[in-house]
Amino acid sequence: MSFTRISPVALLAAILLLAACGRVQEKSLPDLSDQTIQIVATTGMVGDIVSVVGGDRVSVTTLMGAGVDPHTYKASEGDVEKIGNADIIFYSGLHLEAKLAEVFEKMGESIFTVPVAERIPVDQRIVVGTGVGAYDPHVWFDVELWSIAVESVRDTLIEIDPTHADGYNERADAYQIELTALDSYVAEQAASVPEEQRVLITAHDAFNYFARAYNFQVLGIQGVNTATEAGAGDIQNLADFIVEHQIPAIFVESSVSPRTIEALQEAVRSRGFDVRVGGSLFSDAMGDAGTFEGTYIGMVTHNIDTIVGALAA
Ligand SMILES: [Zn+2]
After folding, report:
1. Distance, CA 158 to ligand 1 centroid (Å)?
2. N or C: which end of the chain has fewer CB within 10 A?
3. What pTM does this model have?
4. Alpha carbon 151 to its chain's center
5. 173 CB neighbour count, 10 Å cutoff
6. Domain ranges of the chain
7. In this structure, are residues 139 and 7 in contact, taking their beta carbons and an 8 Å threshold?
8. pLDDT at 224 over 90
């Protein structure tokens, strides 16, 4: 038997590593204790976790900036180079970055990839179909659920850089306290809107987890994936719904063209009712880097304040 030649210690280490971080594609990760870890993150929400938990141990490059739609995002040549040069790649997963996942697959075992949202247990995910894309990927709008992604980042960084485990644990714990406070804030604000007014209408179905966590009804013109076209029938049906329920406001999204929301507003007006655009929400991308809305906590705070301001009025 050839594997008797493998050192038992190395074999055990490999088995433990596989058991501990089963989602990391590669069999063995390099030890990066002595260098700044070069990380590529896909969305801003994922990059924010890595920056916060990684602290000065990591250098993070986020591929998708403000206003970028991850569903349709294609890697540029420069991105492929960044991905190839990174020590590790964190992405959201659950088929959010559909086109990028194909690039990851092509690059195979030469890169280490971690889909942070796929740590979320299957029974806590919202099912929207079958096969690839079976689960709604917009998990970050349930703040408590998104904290599982923080655990995924923390555990992976400790795995590849165990010397600095204390720092990762401390920063992750401090961030989890902030997220718990954020979750309470969103829940309180959401509850301040009378129940019959808790209807959130947006360009695409990015807010199903938000709805489930904070007791809202949500309706999107497009489904969970912006790559599918909105039908004229969808807009007419939603317009009827808005008039019937006297919904005061609908919302555009920073990473989706406002075209369909404007068409919906027109369709409602043609029925003799005026629905306002209640503001712009950050759905699949954060705000500009360097601003409060350019952080996960900032985007979530902006969204709930905008929603409550428009619907509770
Ligand atoms: Zn989306």
Report:
1. 30
2. N
3. 0.88
4. 14
5. 12
6. 18-165, 186-311
7. no
8. no
